[in-house]
Automatic annotation (TrEMBL):
Residues 428-454 are annotated as: Disordered. One of its GO terms (biological process) is allantoin catabolic process. This is Allantoinase. One of its GO terms (cellular component) is cytoplasm. Homotetramer.
Length: 454
């Protein structure tokens, strides 16, 4: 007796796409095969739809507690499930106080258990002031440690210098956890910003000039060297240049334990778009040119990029307004759009449906030890997204479930629409509605065998 039978969808798995039924018992997939016999308490007709594993967004800033006027776990996770996600990992900033010890970790965990529509993991911070707290964060269940090599944009989340990063990586290695780095050189970005601002530069082009590709390439190079030396596991978030990806891929080939993330905005927009659209596209690292966009797509096609995270980092609208582009909040609201971008732009750039499932779900789940997530196999959680692959739709403001209806994806045309999202067999999103109260669970990372990483 199944609790749920999902009938006749095109099931997207590692080996390919096939029409099959999924049998679910107690929130887990138990059978995947054509024409499963019943009985089942509930049947769901998925004919004509594709069934993807729920996306695992390893990089969001929901800013709770402390900055829920920017976003919040309730609104952020609703947007995530509306876009086909079932798991997120929240960054230790821009919530405030930032997650730098057990008490701040537990406060965020409790907020998530109250309000989240998706299952979730939590990052701890790695900053000069909490080096002695890394073991307690690991004990509390942190998925890894996040650090900024450039200024984070917030005084309360300081960047480690090379010494602190070196010691932090050694500690993370001992604890068996990944270090995630925002890799841009603070020396280069701050120095350029100082000079350009001194000359009166305040515009989008000035901002772009203050964060050139070399700032990313240099920081990635240094991060890889430290990871190689300390044998720490490294996750490079939001890489924006082909050169940085190439450096990381070379390091991996010689045995460095590194995974590579990029974000939908680096795949879809350029610096020219940032000039045209302004604050809605302000982010760091900044958007690049079409040659870099092409280099990232090539790297994805050739398997050098492992995961796609949204780096959803919105703020209030007044922080997204102003004459001085440098002082506008840097961060793009994209948590609802990752799968739409991959299904539209990704397919146009030669990705298969299993590629999309791998980048959005399977690899992040595996890399970060989120057991039972990211795949549609017997034994896994029934985290399913039912997608109508052929529908073309124009993204409107009304579609957004985020706190602020402000996204660079509004007005764009997408092909492939999320109809329904299930978390452990329960519908959490259906055609614009959220039929059940939040029931997201906290996920503690399981140890990942060495050979399975990256
Ligand atoms: N603090 C924060 O969320 N920063 C993010 N925003 C952005 O554009 N890049 C980041 O690292
Ligand atoms: Zn970052
Ligand atoms: Zn981020």
């Amino acid at each position: 007796m199944y609790d749920l039978l999902v009938r006749g969808g095109q099931v997207v798995r590692e080996g390919g796409v096939e029409q099959a039924d999924l049998g679910v018992v107690e929130g887990r997939i138990v059978d995947v095969a054509p024409e499963l016999g019943g009985p089942a308490r509930e049947e769901l007709d998925a004919r004509g739809l594709h069934v993807f594993p729920g996306a695992v967004d390893i990089h969001v800033h929901f800013n709770e507690p402390g900055r829920t006027d920017w976003e919040g776990i309730s609104t952020g996770s609703r947007a995530l499930v509306a876009g086909g996600g079932t798991v997120f990992a929240d960054m230790p900033l821009n919530s405030t106080p930032p997650v730098l010890d057990r008490a701040t970790f537990e406060a965020k965990r409790q907020a998530g258990e109250r309000e989240s529509y998706a299952d979730f993991a939590l990052w701890g911070g790695l900053t000069p002031r909490n080096m002695d707290r890394l073991p307690e964060l690991a004990g509390a269940g942190a998925v890894g440690f996040k650090a900024f090599m450039s200024h984070s944009g917030l005084e309360e989340f300081e960047s480690p210098d090379d010494y602190t990063l070196y010691e932090g990586m050694k500690a993370a290695r001992e604890l068996g956890l990944i270090v995630a780095l925002h890799a841009e050189s603070d020396s280069i970005t701050s120095g350029l910003a100082r000079r350009i601002r001194g000359e009166g530069g305040r515009g989008v082009r000035d901002y772009l000039r203050s964060r050139p590709a070399i700032a990313e390439v240099e920081a990635v190079n240094r991060a890889l060297l430290l990871a190689e030396e300390t044998e720490a596991k490294l996750h490079l978030v939001h890489l924006s240049t082909g050169r940085a990806v190439a450096l990381a891929a070379e390091a991996r080939a010689r045995g460095v334990n590194v995974s590579i993330e990029t974000c939908p905005h680096y795949l879809m927009f350029t610096g020219e778009d940032m000039e045209r659209l302004g604050a809605v596209l302000k982010c760091a690292p900044p958007l690049r040119d079409t040659a870099e966009v092409d280099a990232l797509w090539t790297a994805i096609r050739e398997g050098r990029i492992d995961t796609i995270g949204s780096d959803h980092s919105p703020s209030t609208l007044d922080l997204k307004t102003g004459e001085d582009f440098f002082s506008i909040w840097g961060g793009i609201a994209g948590v609802q759009s990752t799968l739409a971008v991959l299904l539209t732009e990704g397919r146009e750039h030669g990705l298969s449906l299993p590629d999309i499932a791998r980048l959005s779900a399977r690899t992040p789940a595996r890399r970060f030890g989120l057991a039972g997530k990211g795949r549609l196999d017997p034994g896994a959680d029934a985290d399913l997204v039912l997608v109508d692959l052929d529908t073309e739709w124009v993204h409107t403001t009304d579609d957004l479930h985020t706190r602020w209806k402000f996204s660079p994806y509004v007005g764009r045309t997408f092909r492939g629409q999320v109809r329904r999202t299930l978390l452990r067999g329960q519908t959490v999103y259906q055609d614009g509605t959220f039929p059940n109260p939040p029931q997201g669970r906290f996920l503690r990372p399981a140890p990942v065998p060495q050979e399975e990483t990256a």
